[in-house]
Amino acid sequence: MSRTERIYRIDQFLSEHKTVSFKTLQEALEVSPATLKRDLEYMRDRLNSPIIWDREAGGYRFDKQPTGSQYELPGLWFSAEEIHALLTMQHLLSNLDGGGILTPHIQPLMTRLNALMGSADDEASEVRRRVMVLSMAKRGVKLAHFERVGAALLHRKRLSITYAGRGRGETTEREISPQRLVYYRENWYLDAWCHLRDGLRNFSLDAITRLKVLDKKSREVALHSMAEALGPGYGIFNGAKLSWAKLRFTPERARWVAAEQWHPQQRGKFDEDGSYLLEVPYSDDRELLMDILKHGRDVEVQAPTSLRNRIKTEIAQMTLRYT
């Protein structure tokens, strides 16, 4: 019987009887005296259970609950393994999202999990000590921007923003209707209808320098329209006009690439010689070029010809720069 089950049984016994002896509880739960004592202490210290020892009655009973305290068995319980997993996920999430912007919203759960662990401080610190998260190319996001974008998104309100676009190096004032938030390659993006450009656009949250929630109803865009305009993601997946890149990876590299997801609709198969053939759709080849080049001589671009030529040009320019 787990401790969760024992606590419920103890609560049931004390609720149904005026007093319950230590021996009765021990026999009913089939535990050692030390275990029962720990369970009773846990209920009193961690769950604020008003359990007292009635010397005259020779047993335990519920006392009148002291003012300011609250005792209630939670509706949801976790095993020790599940709590460890949740603590680990909280730690990962707080490190993965830019600036820990989601942490304040999940901190109450973290606090509750720490309490349920019993020796919470040791367990939580052990998770932080044993789990390391290394992030690359993460850009900082202001918490205030993230929270206001999220509020406008859920309440279906428009936003007025000042946007410092990096592609053209220009700053513009925009009024947008937010549609969805996306976390892509360790950075946050907002898909929105841009009333200045009269079309769907995606905005990097860290490039928003000023933001104001407007008292205007957000324009709604059908999901299928967003999929057609923006595709299922960003960079190499963005846009309606797609090409298919055909890549061949050497047998040595194939063992890694075969386990990777470059795109939800990718196609891949092993060749007879152990090499791996990967096909991915793309419209903008800039990010795809970077992904291909990082594999060096272990990858060959078989198609399309335009992509092969772009790779050749990039390699030629790199060679000139370092010679």
Tell me the CATH topology of the largest domain. Answer: SH3 type barrels
Average predicted local confidence, pLDDT? 81
Helix content: 40-55%
The separation of the N and C termini measures 71 Å
> Number of DSSP helices?
11
Structure description:
It contains 11 helices and 11 strands. It is an alpha+beta fold and 323 residues long. It has 4 domains: 3-62, Winged helix-like DNA-binding domain superfamily/Winged helix DNA-binding domain (Arc Repressor Mutant, subunit A), CATH 1.10.10.10; 80-130; 143-230, Roll (SH3 type barrels), CATH 2.30.30; 243-321, Alpha-Beta Plaits, CATH 3.30.70. The strands form 3 sheets. It has a 5-stranded antiparallel β-sheet with strand order 6-5-4-3-7, sandwiched between helices. It has a 4-stranded antiparallel β-sheet with strand order 9-10-8-11. A hairpin with a 4-residue loop joins strand 5 (187-194) and strand 6 (199-204). The model has no long low-confidence stretch (mean pLDDT 81).
How would you briefly describe this protein structure?
The chain has 323 residues and is an alpha+beta fold. The protein has helices spanning 3-16, 22-29, 33-45, 80-96, 103-116, 120-130, 143-155, 223-230, 251-257, 285-293, 305-321; strands spanning 51-54, 59-62, 157-165, 170-184, 187-194, 199-204, 208-217, 243-249, 267-270, 276-282, 299-303.
